[in-house]
Amino acid sequence: MAEWDADLDYIVPSSVLPPFWAKLVVGFVSLVCFARSYDGDFVFDDSEAIVNNKDLRAETPLGDLWHHDFWGSRLSSNTSHKSYRPLTVLTFRMNYYLSGGFHPASFHVVNILLHGGVSVLLVDVFSVLLGGLQYTSKGRRLNLAPRSSVLAALLFAVHPVHTECVAGVVGRADLLGALFFLLSFLGYCKALREANKEGTHSTCWVLLSILLGAVAMLCKEQGITVLGLNAVFDILVIGKLNVLEIVQKVLHKGRSLENPGVLRNGGLLFRMALLALGGAGMLFARWRIMGTGPPAFTEVDNPASFADSMLVRAINYNYYYSLNAWLLLCPWWLCFDWSMGCIPLIKSVGDWRVIAPAALWFCLIGLICQALCSEDSHKRRILTLGLGFLIIPFLPASNLFFRVGFVVAERALYLPSAGYCMLLTCGLGALSRLTKRKKLIAALVLGILFINTLRCVIRSDEWRTEDQLFRSALSVCPLNAKVHYNVGKNLADKGNQTAAIRYYREAVRLNPKYVHAMNNLGNILKERNELQEAEQLLSLAVQIQPDFAAAWMNLGIVQNSLKRFQAAEQSYRTAIKHRRKYPDCYYNLGRLYADLNRHVDALNAWRNATVLKPEHSLAWNNMIILLDNTGNLAQAEAVGREALELIPDDHSLMFSLANVLGKSQKYKESEALFLKAIKAHPNAASYHGNLAVLYHRWGHLDLAKKHYEISLHLDPTASGTKENYGLLRRKLEQMQKKDV
């Protein structure tokens, strides 16, 4: 190995080689690459996994984390994503608690530090994989590949494909999974300290390694694959399995075909048995936890897996592998989402894109031949371990064992990229050995590191806000309906409805079955009073997806606006049928009943909304106002007091209850609530106007005049306030005449 490592002398200076300095340099570079993302927002999937995830809040029992998926849904639910990562969610919860709420910076800083930690650990991992496992007489592990291990770790630290994992907070699952994956591997290496003496090892360290593998799996499902890497390393490095020798014995029938030494090594077989039992136990536990079986993905998530022809599926899966390989080789075109038409399906072998998987397999077969048949034993071992580190962690995302919910996912390349960096380092070492222009190779490596670092900084900046992230994808995946949908949604949230409509329409054009785009577009058209088209879109959405509760509710709102009350009621009822706990739908159903003067039904609907969502201010307000308008002042007062106990800082509830108390001649208490509401929302003209009415009734005419004038200053068009102010002025004039 010394000769291989010496080939990199021009690339990695000797001053970097001491372990402390090597790790310091790698850690520093890894932090610099992604430091730009530290003050970013919660973007894309962060909203669902963090901001809207009740498992992060203190009121949710910690035990619920073990029964919920990554997004906070119960694993037993048919709608669950089945992504079981309780330890990752636990770190989110700790972040939330320690930072005192949803402050993105604290979440981002943890991710950046985790990537730094993984990059530093890889210095040790690469030193073992590239240099072998040897110890001094005092039990200290020798680093026989100091240059190549540092270079491989640097290439990993600055790889732009990692941006999604580091800059996107949900990527913490991959970071934590990788961290414990590497710790498990290093723990397994500890177990093999004495393994060169046949049959000896530390069973405790083997078991600890398996335990760390289980922890990695509880952070991200990919973590279980460390057991496969441990097994390959044990067989090749410790068992010294020589595949070339076995092949030669098989091909030359004249030679005696004895059992390989691996099969006679009792210690190795025992360790393989422990790894196999550990892996089987993890898979069984995972299967039991999933409960209702694998998640149900749709065709737009992974179109190749829904193809009828096995040949079409195989071609497209291999094309996806080639795209992943290209992202590792040239990580310039990166996208937050590769689904929904971003990569059109290959439907025949006549498609020119089949060249990509052919090129991939040409390279892989070449590497595999070298890994198995090279006469250089060190080269065989390095290439085999590099391919193992590249392929084994990728297997869960390969579609080979089960359908996955994506076409290409940059986050799935976080661990496999370590294998790629290892192979690239070997290639650079071989290139350096073959040429006399060492400085040119050094310049090439420095150029790769610099360009990748620059790309990481640029991409980290794009991940800071949703607007930049979504727009960056338009040039990479212009055929991706989800990209256009997300740009439109972001514009709609900012109030730019005209531009949002344009992107929503493009999303629907690219994917005519995109029900979420139809629903959002229908909502905007409803707000713009374009009710006929809104109804058509929402009707089509529920026709495509009959259990789409939100679309049913929005269809009901449109039908209510069109005075088609019976159809609206039916739509609301259908929405509630598909989503039983739907407070907003109960609220809108109550509004429908109020329009039809079905007061009891309206009150019941609003009461259901507040039971399901006690902080539903609009439902409480409507109950108070309806009871007030129908003369049930005592009941209105009781409901108002109940609401304020649950939502004590809601100024609209203070205002509604103050109106009721004023009518009940409880002037002092009414005044206090009006003033409190005005303090919270001083520019509400109606608050000042109604307080003026209270003072008018109460006989505090000067105060009434003051608040009438404030109200009219805020809203000069309020006819009721104008009329009351006129009455007050005439009364004040009459009083002045009497005084005269």
From TrEMBL:
UniProt GO BP: endoplasmic reticulum unfolded protein response
Enzyme class: transferase
TPR repeat start and end residues: 481-514, 515-548, 583-616
GO CC, any one term: endoplasmic reticulum
Signal peptide: none
EC number: 2.4.1.109
Domain DUF1736: 293-365
Membrane topology qualifier: Multi-pass membrane protein
One Pfam family it belongs to: TPR_16
Keywords noted in UniProt: Endoplasmic reticulum, Membrane, Repeat, TPR repeat, Transferase, Transmembrane, Transmembrane helix
Keyword Iron-sulfur in annotation: no
Pathway where it operates: Protein modification; protein glycosylation
GO MF terms, alphabetically ordered: dolichyl-phosphate-mannose-protein mannosyltransferase activity
Subcellular localization, as worded in the UniProt entry: Endoplasmic reticulum; Membrane
InterPro entries membership: O-mannosyl-transferase_TMTC, TMTC_DUF1736, TPR-like_helical_dom_sf, TPR_rpt
Record-annotated membrane-spanning stretches: 20-38, 112-132, 169-188, 200-218, 224-247, 268-287, 354-373, 385-406, 412-431, 440-458
Family classification: Belongs to the TMTC family.
Protein name (record): dolichyl-phosphate-mannose--protein mannosyltransferase
Organism: Camelus ferus
UniProt lineage: Eukaryota, Metazoa, Chordata, Craniata, Vertebrata
Designated gene of the protein: TMTC4
